[in-house]
């Protein structure tokens, strides 16, 4: 069965039919292997994202000698609001993209892509939250990937009880919980 995996299916299938060139993933100056990750599984995708928030990641998005040229939507800077004892907008060991609002919530060791809102009394840990998500109040999210456009209802708990998560969402072999709008009963109608 064809899995549409580049390394296992697509590249081997074109070698006999087309002219194929290979490129060694080496830094020509240092001789060290360049960055490459196969992100063909939920666990691999999650791990590659988690690597980005390390102190010295192999793919350093802040390396001025190797700029990444890409389209960047014009969004306001990330915003962290409320500094009360019981609700403090904060993020630690995380990457928070433009347009995000962390409103009285705690984000730890996570990535928030653009235009994500995390509402009061919520904690997000060891997670990847893709663009345009809104996470309700009083949620606890651990070791999850929240798909683009999800509206996570108030009080939702994800990543703490595998059996519960398997009833509602997809849980990978490595214990990463994938949440999509469909799984939340929402129709995906992404509009830029």
UniProtKB/TrEMBL annotation:
Signal peptide per UniProt: none
The keyword Oxidoreductase belongs to this UniProt entry's keyword annotation: no
Keywords on record: Glycogen biosynthesis, Nucleotidyltransferase, Transferase
Chain ranges of the Nucleotidyl transferase domain: 3-52
Domain called Glucose-1-phosphate adenylyltransferase/Bifunctional protein GlmU-like C-terminal hexapeptide: residue spans: 76-179
GO BP: glycogen biosynthetic process
Domain of life of the native organism: Bacteria
GO molecular function: glucose-1-phosphate adenylyltransferase activity
SUPFAM superfamilies: Nucleotide-diphospho-sugar transferases, Trimeric LpxA-like enzymes
EC number: 2.7.7.27
Family membership noted in the UniProt record: Belongs to the bacterial/plant glucose-1-phosphate adenylyltransferase family.
Protein name (record): Glucose-1-phosphate adenylyltransferase
Source organism (scientific name): Methylocucumis oryzae
Organism phylogeny: Bacteria, Pseudomonadati, Pseudomonadota, Gammaproteobacteria, Methylococcales
């Amino acid at each position: 069965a064809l899995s549409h995996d580049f390394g296992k299916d697509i590249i081997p299938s074109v070698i006999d039919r087309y002219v194929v060139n290979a490129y060694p993933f080496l830094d020509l100056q240092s001789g060290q292997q360049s960055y490459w990750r196969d992100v063909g599984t939920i666990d691999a995708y999650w791990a590659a994202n988690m690597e980005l928030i390390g102190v010295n990641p192999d793919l350093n998005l802040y390396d001025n000698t190797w700029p990444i040229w890409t389209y960047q939507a014009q969004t306001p800077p990330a915003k962290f609001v409320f500094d009360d004892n019981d609700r403090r907008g904060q993020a630690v060991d995380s990457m928070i993209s433009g347009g995000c609002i962390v409103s009285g919530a705690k984000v730890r060791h996570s990535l928030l892509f653009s235009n994500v809102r995390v509402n009061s009394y919520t904690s997000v840990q060891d997670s990847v939250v893709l663009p345009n998500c809104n996470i309700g109040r009083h949620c606890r999210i651990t070791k999850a990937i929240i798909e683009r456009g999800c509206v996570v209802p108030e009080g939702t708990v994800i990543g703490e009880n595998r059996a519960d998560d398997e009833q509602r969402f997809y849980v990978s072999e490595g214990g990463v919980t994938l949440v999509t709008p469909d799984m939340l009963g929402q129709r995906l109608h992404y509009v830029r």
